[in-house]
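Much of what follows relies on a compact textual record of a protein's fold. A record is reproduced here so that you can trace the correspondence yourselves:
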Amino acid sequence: MCESWEDSRTNIQEEEKAIPVFLPGGGDRLETVRWQCVVGSPSSPGGHDQLAGLYQLPDAGERPQTSRDLAMSLDRAPSSSLAQVGTLSQEMVSGAWMENASLSYEYGDYGEIPDVPVDCADGTCTSIDPLHAAPLLLYAAVFLVGMPGNAMVAWVTWKEARQRAGATWFLHLAMADLLCCLSLPILAVSVAHGGRWLYGAVGCRTLPSVILLSMYTSVLLLAGLSADLCLLALRPTWWGAAQRACRVRVACGAAWTLALLLTVPSAIYRRLHQEHFPRRLECVVDYGGSTVAENSVTAIRFIFGFLGPLVIVAGCHGALLCRAARHRWPLGIAVVVGFFICWAPYHALGLVLTMAAPHSTLLAGALRAEPLVVGLALAHSCLNPMLFLYCGRTQLRQSLPAACRWALKESQSKDESVVSKKSTSHDFVSDVEV
């Protein structure tokens, strides 16, 4: 449908077709109906960004010209974010409707069109798409588990960091996860309102960037932690206890600073966008049609947020396995592996969304998988407390903080024996415990 006529100014397509009309008393009759399909918005920005329920609409050059293209375009439009999963059906309804009235080119003339299912009369039926509740349920689960869990880990590691410099790494990891968990209720409000943004232009640039800040900080801290442990095991005499504590604090501060700088490129391209079908204000990422800008942001995110730290972590742990066979660190290894398992699909999907051709099967499949991928990435915010409790499970009967303390000590008990054979300083040996 909607292939025989097109107006390039408003992207409206029209066709006349005889369709069966069912009568109230039974039976049906044919009636000629003029179809008017309004597709997208002439000023829609383009690009991809999965996190925090913020999305980019397709460029004007990518808008569908046939009914087949329309179906494919709906697969890659605002539904390409976790927050918009539940509103996909509404976007499909509001993007095309039947009307016998005369054609109007004014956006305001279409502001009161009811956003209801096409097979239901206005107000006669309502349905709740289970997918619409999925993002809210995920946000709630991550928040309820991550907030108390990371708060407990932060409290325990803060107390332990006074005596063991290595615990500082876990303190900052818990703070990064807490930051992500704190942002979820704020973003969930936008999801509950069908994608409508309520926090203004400044909030559009800052609030969604919190999750990216948490991601960058976590991965940089894990890279620094791996390098610290590698130096500690292979060159234990290079640093004393006080020097190592100072070095760890400086490294943690540098990780937060670099993470903040890496978040800036994504925040620059965020802006408010007035959507007219249905009418609402949305927070989107607008690259202004620049492929170079979109590819640059994606490359920065992939290299500094995944590939670079992965190389450092793999190199450090590979060196430990080759040169310090008895060096074991169950908690640290679990935290590192858990991070990359949760975030690897997200970065892979980001590359696919950037490189896939418009209207391709690959792009449509990637967008369908996007809610699961983003959900897995967000779930990492509540993973570390579970790993602490698992590694300290022998002390769970005593208390949860005791289990966390045991996980910290147990993970480094083997390291202490390695270092004690290479160093004569008792203070240094006692400080090695995380």
In short: The chain is about 60% helix and 10% strand.
